[in-house]
């Protein structure tokens, strides 16, 4: 997760905190607000790409990331 945060512009301190997070909720709290959408979109795209590859590119994949209240944070397709 820390590497993904770095890829979207996270600074070293934020990346280190994310690397040391223990739960998804903890991670959610540590991602800087200005980077949240881009970071969550990046995670969704990685998940969609991995699922698509696992399925031998034979099915369309859509991944949605929801917060703890059920609100959609990001969507990605492959």
Mind explaining what this structure looks like?
- The protein has 78 residues and is α+β, with helices and mostly antiparallel strands.
- The protein has one domain.
- The chain is 51% helix and 14% strand.
- It has 4 helices and 2 strands.
- The protein has a two-stranded antiparallel ribbon with strand order 1-2.
- Strand 1 (62-66) and strand 2 (72-77) form a beta hairpin.
Give me some keywords for this one.
2 strands, globular, two-stranded antiparallel ribbon, 78 residues, alpha+beta
Short recap of the structure:
With 78 residues, this protein is an alpha+beta fold.
> What would you call the structural class?
alpha+beta
In what order do the strands lie side by side in the largest sheet? Answer: 1-2
Order of helices and strands: HHHHEE
> In angstroms, what separates the terminal alpha carbons?
20 Å
Largest sheet: 2 strands, antiparallel
What is the molecular shape?
globular
Tell me the fraction of residues in β-strands, as a range: 5-15%
The share of residues in helices is: 40-55%
Number of domains: 1
Low-confidence stretches: none
The chain-level mean pLDDT equals: 96
Q: Output the radius of gyration.
A: 13 Å
Q: Work out the number of β strands.
A: 2
Q: How many helical stretches?
A: 4
Blueprint (SSEs and pairs):
Layout: H1 2-7, H2 12-19, H3 24-30, H4 36-54, E1 62-66, E2 72-77
Antiparallel strand pairs: 1-2
């Amino acid at each position: 997760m820390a590497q993904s945060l770095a890829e979207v512009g996270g600074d070293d301190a934020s990346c280190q905190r994310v690397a040391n997070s223990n739960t998804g909720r903890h991670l959610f709290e540590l991602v800087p607000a200005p980077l949240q959408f881009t970071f969550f979109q990046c995670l969704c795209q990685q998940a969609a790409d991995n699922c698509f590859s696992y399925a031998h590119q034979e099915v369309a994949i859509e991944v949605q990331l929801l917060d703890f209240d059920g609100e959609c944070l990001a969507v990605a397709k492959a």
